[in-house]
Each structure stands twice: as C-alpha cells, then as structure tokens.
Amino acid sequence: MEEGVIASWLKKVGDTVKPGDILAEVETDKATMELESYDEGVLLHIGVKEKEAVPVNGIIAVIGEKGEDFEHLLSDNGAAAEEKEETQEKEEPKKETEKPKSKEKIDTSSINATIISMPKMSDTMQEGTISAWLKKVGDDIKSGEIIAEVETDKATMELESYEDGNLLYIGIEEGNSVPVDGVIAVIGEKGADYETLLKAHEQEMAGESEEEEAPKQESKPSPQPEKKESQTASTPSPAPVLADGERVKASPLAKKIAEERGIDIRQVAGSGDGGRIIKRDVENFVPTAAPAASSSASAVMPAVGQESFREENVSQMRKVIAKRLAESKFGAPHFYLTMEINMDKAIEARKSMNEIAPVKISFNDMVIKATAAALRQHPKVNSSWLGDKIRYNDHIHIGMAVAVEEGLLVPVIRFADSKSLSQISNEAKTLGGKAKNKELQPKDWEGNTFTISNLGMFGIEEFTAIINPPDACILAVGGIKETVIVKNGEMKVGNVMKVTLSCDHRVVDGAVGSAFLLTLKGLLEDPVRILI
C-alpha cells in the first residue's frame, strides 16, 4: 500500500471521539477497511475529502481538545512542499512572472450535488470498467445502495453510494473504462446545476495538469477530449433486459453462475433488494422446457464457410497480469533448470498418509512441503532483487498459483516450512476455494518469497513459468507419468515427474539453482525426510 482513499467519513468536525470509534472507511490496496481512532478528544480538522487519496503517513485528520490550535501541525506537513515551490521559483523566476493569469474559479457553493469518482480499489489499479449500472439517471438513491458494478484488476466489485439524492448524471457507459479518480456520476438534489459542477471540476483538473507540465518546454494538450472521444467510439456489450426494456438487476456472482449453467438470467425471479437476482435465485432456478427447434438460433449461427469473430474488452485482472509478467520476463534475465524426479516412494507414502490424515493430502501438498524444506537449506533461492541490494528472506512464504476464470491469482501459504502436510493441505484447499469465489483478502495474496505453479493435474508433462515478482525463482511442476526407467542396469516401470526452476540470474546462479533442485529431488524421492 502506497496510498489510501477515504471512502466515507463517519464523523464530522466538532464530533467527540473516543478510542475505538470508527472515524472513516478507507479503501486500501485491496479492500475497504475501517479506520479506528486510538485517541480521545474532538475532531478538530478533516484534511482529506471523501473519495480523495492520501499517501501513507499523510495527515488526514486532527483530534485534540476543543478550541485547541492545530495549524502548526498542518504547516509542518506542508513544509517540504513549500520548500520545493520556493526552489522552483528561484530557478525559474522568469517563467513564473510570464505565467498567464488563471481563470476565475467557478463558485459551486450553492450547488447541492456531489461528483462520484472512480475509487482506487487496489494498489495496481489504474482504471476501472463499469460492467453494469444498477441505477439510471433520475433514480432516487439512498446511502448504502449499490449504484454500479465495477470490474477492477482483481475482481468485479459493487460500487456503493455514500450520498442521499438523485442520480443526476452518468459520465461513463456500461462496458467503458475510466481512470482512477475519473468522474463516473453526479448525485445530488433534483434539478441541481450539475453541469456547472462538472465544469468546475474540469477547471480544477486542468489547473493541476498545467502545474505539473509547467517545467516542460512544450505543453501537451489536455487528454480530456480524447478520453471522451474514445468513450463515445467504444461500443459496450448490452446488459440483459426484460421485455419491457428494463435492465435485469443481478449480482456479478449470479450472472457468472447463470452463464456457466446456460441459464437465461432474464427468466430468473430475484429475491434480493428491489428484485435483484442473487446467487440463491440462480441455484434454485428450474428452467421451463424449451421448444424442440428454434428458428432464431439458426438465424444467428454463421453459415458454413462464413468467417466470424467476437471481441471482448480486456479485463482489469488480465491487464495487470500482462503488465507485471511482461515486466518480469523482459526485466529479469531468466534461465531454466529442469530435473526428473522418481515419484514411486512419494506415491506409496501419500497412500499410507491418507489412511490416517485428517484431510486428503495431494501431491501438490507434498511438493509445497518439500520445496519449503529445500528452501530452508538453500536460503539464496528464497530471495528478491531490489535493484541496489538483494533481500534474503529468513521466513518461507510459498505462493501457490491458482487459475480462475479471469486469469491467475497467487494465494500465499505462510511459514510453510514449519507446517505439517495436513496443515498445508487444509490451507491450500481453503485458499484455492477463496480464490475461485473471489473471497481472498489482501493478507491472503501478499508476501510470497517463492512461487509454485503446478499444471500436472491438466496432463502437462513439462513447462516453464515466468517469475512472479518479487520472487527470484518459480518452480513449474508437471504431471506424474508412468514410464520405463533404468535402475541398477535394468529397465523397470516407474513414475516420473519433471520440474523446471525459472531463476532470475541477477540473484541466483546455475550452481545455486541446481543444488536446490538436487535437495528437492532427494526429499521427494524419499518423503520420510520431509517429516524430519
């Protein structure tokens, strides 16, 4: 986390605050969390408005005694910024004097309306896509109601309104993207002059843009018109509608389940708020018998030999996967080490352990445990490249790549070397289920020191994986294959598994990676050693 966004203030200036009171809701890098007060006093000052971002350690509020002077605290916070401004003025006095006079600020004090901006829902999020609007212009909205579904880089999330009022304006159509802090809607008093409010907002943004570009020799045109043009040109896929033209209200999970089961969500009756369709409604839905033949179905099917295709907007998760893995692949010099491991004893040991284990132990669980034990013996592999230094981690947190519909998530099994196989198995199953149901929390996917990607269950015998930053290595695990092996000069049938270690050559050399794989091979070929 580098910054937080104040989703809503639960206290206002002048309120008495006690330790344990919730001051505000803060959108962190992956979730919305409650900000608790640890002090007693009066809320004297609020320094960050709702929907605005503030960096870590930035001042968001002041709590003290009623009437106490706090201005010196705020001036201390802005000292560095003022010093920077003074330096720039000394370096470029000419440009400062020649700077054109800014336009008179538009007065919006009498406009009873609020601009709703795209919140930053994760540290990697740069923009969000409006997957569905649950309200339309003219609808009355109460605080706490869901107004839209937003697709971020990690998941599809519900955008909650923190204002009471009328939905006066929608600035982004379904299926289109908007950058973080971009205007998506205006909520306020019916008949409020929201157009003036938007103009004032544009003026404010333009002023900030001019200040940022002032040191440059050539000023670039504002990107605002291009953004509007691209939004107009983009054609989003229409949301399901009823016969009377009204849009179907359904949660993202309900839509997903309906799509997987081939259910027309328009036929499902909703039991949620305002007739909204939820997961339970889809699961309990019994479809009516369909006609034997459908003329409309044949009409939309392409004729034999006719070319056809469809295009979909890239999801936020896929955008981030593409960005991070491209940076890893082309930024870190990869090399690969492949080794065959005889899994005969591992198969026997697993069968024996599962006779008494409280949970079913998988081969993946055994690989995680053996990898953690091997990392303990080879700490140089359990490391990260930090540019001017290398971090060698004393703790061992194994990232476990899990495929989900939108892409890939990597939940983390912490302190894997100190956990039993049963504990690892139970945790892996729990985290895997959370990943597929989009229930992971920030603590579940942060802090990995080494990653394992296993495609053996899909019949893949061997592959290479791209390193998952900030790790220095990733282990690609293939499936167990029954094959002919030579043992003591004789050919026998055995079970072999291939693993490939991808290494960042800036941190790990070939000899170090090879030694790690030899230790891993020894542990899996004689699994009793894992338990020691």
Q: Helix and strand layout, with pairings?
A:
Layout: E1 3-9, E2 16-17, E3 22-27, E4 32-36, E5 41-46, E6 53-55, E7 61-64, H1 71-77, H2 79-91, H3 93-98, E8 113-117, E9 127-133, E10 140-141, E11 146-151, E12 156-160, E13 165-170, E14 177-179, E15 183-188, H4 194-213, H5 224-233, H6 252-261, H7 279-283, H8 295-300, H9 316-331, E16 334-342, H10 344-353, H11 363-377, E17 383-385, E18 390-392, E19 398-400, E20 402-404, E21 407-409, E22 412-413, H12 421-436, H13 442-445, E23 450-454, E24 473-487, E25 490-504, H14 510-525
Parallel strand pairs: 19-23, 23-24
Antiparallel strand pairs: 1-3, 1-6, 2-5, 3-4, 5-7, 8-15, 9-11, 9-14, 10-13, 11-12, 13-15, 16-25, 17-18, 19-22, 20-21, 24-25
Helix pairs in contact: 11-12, 11-14
